[in-house]
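Researcher: I'm preparing a figure for a lab meeting and need a structural model of a single chain. I don't have an experimental structure, so a prediction will have to do for now. The sequence is pasted below. Please return the structure as tokens so I can convert it later.
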Amino acid sequence: MLLHGGGNNRHMWREAGYIERLQNNFTLIIPDLRGHGESDSPAEPSDYTTDKMAEDINGRE
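Model: Understood. Here is the structure written out token by token.
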């Protein structure tokens, strides 16, 4: 799983050459984090806690 930093989105991994180098040897999971790229952007600041971001990644609520 490749997770981008704040202010970026999942496309940064392709631009940096990671996808091309890794895709033949690994299953890549490359999400846009909450509020970035093509993901949803909740309006409430409380929706951006570390716990909420971890839930997104783990697929649990």
